[in-house]
Amino acid sequence: MKTTDLASVRAMVYGDVQGVFFRAFASQKAKGLGLKGYVHNLPRGGSVEVVAEGERKRLEELVAYLMVGPPAAKVARVITNWSEHSGRYTEFSVKY
Predict the structure, then answer these.
(1) Does the annotation mark 81 as catalytic?
(2) Which of 38, 61, 62, 91 has the smallest C-beta neighbourhood within 10 Å, fewest atoms?
(3) Segment 20-70, tens digit of pLDDT
(4) What CATH topology corresponds to 3-95?
(5) Which of 41, 44, 58, 81 is catalytic?
């Protein structure tokens, strides 16, 4: 794999995404795709932040999953900010 295939994405997910197992869903999908980073609820409610790194193609797959969410979620929008891979994460975790 070339390092140019690696990227980082920060996805802000808005809608009914707290209290609906969104963090567990995002973590499961990210781990299944071999990505590293974290997911956590933002304090202002109604939004979740996902930061992930890995192969760009797999990050794009994760973003597609985030746009749908778990069954109880109602995703209104997902805003992504792409950047260079940093290598700072060793796993994908859920922050509480």
Answers:
(1) no
(2) 91
(3) 999 999 999 999 999 999 999 999 878 999 999 999 999 999 999 999 999
(4) Alpha-Beta Plaits (3.30.70)
(5) 41
